[in-house]
Amino acid sequence: MCVKNAGYSRYFCILVIMKVQIISLFPEVFKPLFSSSMLEKASRNNLVSFEYINLRDFGLGPRKSVDDTPYGGGDGMVLMVEPLTLAIEKARDNDPNAIVILPTPRGRQYKQSEAIELARSKGLIIVCAHYEGYDERVTDYVDRQYSIGNYVLTGGEIPAMTIVDSVVRLIPGVLGGPESAANESFQDDDQTIEHPHYTRPEEFRGQKVPEVLLTGHHQNIRNWREDNKRK
Length: 231
Ligand code: 6GU
Fold this sequence. Notes:
By secondary structure, this protein is an alpha/beta fold. It contains six helices and twelve strands. It is elongated. The model has no long low-confidence stretch (mean pLDDT 91).
């Protein structure tokens, strides 16, 4: 990206690279998504890089254990604080200014406004917890905790993918045209949903494309699009 330096009539060109480090016991699940479509193109163009840290590498003892039974009793296993913290510290050593994110149903609701804010960062570290949960003491080593909705998933991988996708597409140069990111859903206030879209054919099984979109009348089309946002 090239920016004009205020006061000097010069342009400075900077390579915009966002480094995304994912801490997970299942790093392989990310590869199909991150090596397809928009995300693949973004990494090919050096707009983003993906790196994986396997939590197992920080497991304790000869069996590389990462979890243990919960204090106080109950079902399931809890990810131990030490392997999680060591993995986060390793990722922070690689990128000291990165924002550390823990996807968790206990976090605050993830919204487009957060995606916009995260897209300004040069580095993200996403910690995918699993099993019944994680030792709460790890939260001292993270900057943000986000939930992606009011339901429970088995692990942080799908929320991590959601966050990465929503952020990377906002990095300048990732989307098609200059207006793509500006016009779209949720842009202003986490509320507004973009208007519906149509392409060829004009008629499919009796369903017609709204007449106004075929007229070429730009003001009427703008009005129709404005009226057909979901608010
Ligand atoms: Cl971020 N994690 C898990 N495990 N479940 C969730 C979630 C996160 N957000 C909604 N449900």
